[in-house]
Structure formats: structure tokens, C-alpha cells
UniProtKB/TrEMBL annotation:
The lineage of its organism: Bacteria, Pseudomonadati, Pseudomonadota, Alphaproteobacteria, Hyphomicrobiales. Residues 10-220 form the DNA/pantothenate metabolism flavoprotein C-terminal domain. GO terms for cellular component: phosphopantothenoylcysteine decarboxylase complex. The keyword Magnesium applies. It comes from Rhizobium lentis. The chain holds residues 179 to 402 of 402 of the full protein. CTP binds at D102, K112, P130, D131, I132, L133, F149, K163, K167. This is Coenzyme A biosynthesis bifunctional protein CoaBC.
Length: 224
């Protein structure tokens, strides 16, 4: 990279990172969730901290440890994640990596739903969750740099570009998560960077390497 101002080019910069899935309760013992290990988001939080940024990581339920040197806020639901992200503003940058559940159960049950033999099976009425990236991308306290992720199973580039526009992001990191790629839950990632002025394809990399490259690119952005 072209960095020449020491090892901590993001010193003094605040970053918000979301990671992991959200869990949307159905009743006290059941939930709806996306597949997400949190590995990519946590690696990005760690990589930004390593470059000197003050990082607030808003994490959904994951099985991995909090990154060292990062302020981690644990949440369950999308609305809680949104609240924690907004509470962390203002910030210089936001990197939204979480696999937020698009819908939640309209009215979660207070008590465990029980089977009643011979009676009808329950159906779930869903309602839309807040779009956290879109909220931040259009916020009056919008961070200078807003980055989103897009996990797609088809038409990766056109879908990601539509998200770039719709959500008010500066950059979308897109990856193909169709089952054949084996990306989901794995340790590697194969991404394309979608910007307003072009596309950049990165080779197949470990999630930690994707995180370090992205953090370096962010540092160059703030250095310029
Ligand atoms: N995102 C978010 N809040 C949501 C949904 C998504 O912050 N409620 C963020 C994700 O963290 C990611 C980006 O938006 O950075 C794209 O998420 P994705 O699920 O791919 O986009 P959606 O707009 O939900 O579109 P769809 O799932 O229909 O493809
Ligand atoms: Ca979604």
C-alpha cells in the first residue's frame, strides 16, 4: 500500500461495524435467523482496530470470541442492532457486515407455542425489519465512509449495484454465496468491490485477508 504515516493510519477515527446474524423471536424458545458465522465482520473490526481505529462492533449472536481491542456490543434482534448502531453515531466510517433478518414475527408469543393434536398448525405473520445500512447511509449524521456487504446467489453485480444506490453506500462488498461456492460459514471469501465508478475483483482470500485489504483501502481513503 501507499501508506507512509506509520502503523496506525486510522488513529483518531471512529468505526462502527455490524457482524453476525440477528435472531428474531417467534416465542421464548424459537427464532428466525440468517446463516452467518460473524467471521468476516469480526475480522474487519479487528483489522480496523489494528490500524488504530476506535471500533464499536455491534454483533448479533455468534459462536466466536469478541475481537481484542474492540468495543463489542451484543444484540439479538435487528431493532436492537439498529438502536446500538445509531447510539454509536457520530462515526467516521460504518461497515455493515451483519446478515440482518429482513423480517421479524409481527407479534412474537410471550409463552412457548404448544402443539395441539388435531388442531391447525400455526402460521407466522411477518413484518419488515429496519434497514440499518440504508438508515445510516441517509442519516443526517452519515459517516464519511459507508460500506455495505451483499451476499447474493445470482446476478451478483447488478444486485449489489442496486444496493449501493438504494442504501446510500460508498462501496458494496459483494460475494456469491450460492451453495456451490461453499462460501457460507467457511473461512474464505471471494469478493467484488462495487463502487459508483467501477468494479474491482479480488482473488479468493481468507476472510482475515479480505478484512486486512479492506482496512488498508479504508486507511488510504482517509489518508487521501
Ligand atoms: N442490511 C442492514 N439492515 C437490513 C438488511 C440489510 O443493515 N435490515 C445491510 C447488510 O448488513 C448488508 C447490506 O445491507 O451490508 C445488504 O444486505 P442484503 O441482505 O444483501 O440486502 P437487502 O437490502 O436485505 O436485500 P435482499 O436480502 O432482498 O437481497
Ligand atoms: Ca436481506
Amino acid at each position: 500500500t501507499m501508506l507512509d504515516d506509520g502503523e496506525k493510519p486510522l488513529k483518531g477515527r471512529n468505526a462502527i461495524v455490524t457482524s453476525g446474524p440477528t435472531h428474531e423471536p417467534i416465542d421464548p424458545v424459537r427464532y428466525i435467523a440468517n446463516r452467518s458465522s460473524g467471521r468476516q465482520g469480526h475480522a474487519i473490526a479487528a483489522a480496523l482496530a489494528k490500524l488504530g481505529a476506535e471500533v464499536t462492533l455491534v454483533s448479533g449472536p455468534v459462536a466466536i470470541a469478541d475481537p481484542v481491542g474492540v468495543h463489542t456490543v451484543h444484540v439479538e434482534r435487528a431493532e436492537e442492532m439498529r438502536d446500538a448502531v445509531l447510539a454509536a453515531l457520530p462515526a467516521d466510517m460504518a461497515v455493515m457486515v451483519a446478515a440482518v433478518a429482513d423480517w421479524r414475527v409481527a407479534s412474537a408469543a410471550d409463552q412457548k407455542l404448544k402443539k395441539h393434536p388435531g388442531e391447525s398448525i400455526p402460521t407466522l405473520a411477518l413484518t419488515e425489519n429496519p434497514d440499518i445500512l440504508k438508515t445510516v447511509g441517509h442519516h443526517t449524521m452519515r459517516p464519511r465512509l459507508v460500506i455495505g456487504f451483499a451476499a447474493e446467489t445470482q446476478d451478483v453485480e447488478s444486485n449489489a449495484r442496486a444496493k449501493l444506490e438504494r442504501k446510500g453506500a460508498d462501496l458494496i462488498v459483494a460475494n456469491d454465496v450460492s451453495p456451490a461456492t461453499g462460501i457460507m460459514g467457511g473461512s474464505r471469501n471471494s469478493v467484488r468491490l462495487i463502487r459508483h465508478d467501477g468494479v474491482e475483483r479480488w482473488p479468493d482470500l481468507a476472510k482475515e485477508e479480505v478484512a486486512e485489504r479492506l482496512a488498508a483501502l479504508i486507511a488510504e481513503y482517509f489518508h487521501a
